[in-house]
Hints:
globular, 117 residues, mainly alpha, 2 strands
Amino acid sequence: MGTPPDPASIGEILRARYRRLPERLADLAGPTSGVVALSLYVAWSGRMSFALDGPESRMGLYRIALAEGQQGDLMAFLDHGLLVEQWPVLRKPISRHVREAWKGTFPELVQAAAPVD
């Protein structure tokens, strides 16, 4: 049957994939209201349009964009303020590799997820 893939190798491949982040969170200049329709190559299965005024819809958009979007998609679809605001909750349903790439690049996200005293 062959040798199963090394989990460390799979993790490295996934981490490399998620390094297509913008240089700065401020580069995320997407809309903060209205309806966003993702491209088919980003939302390749299921829902493609998301109302930013609805928290669940907005979280769905951000979750899909973080997992599937390329750098240009991230900058066009995501807003830096909304990402930081949603990060404490959003970081939980995204994959560990996506979460580590974003929080390793942007300390603002780590601070946003810290408990408030």
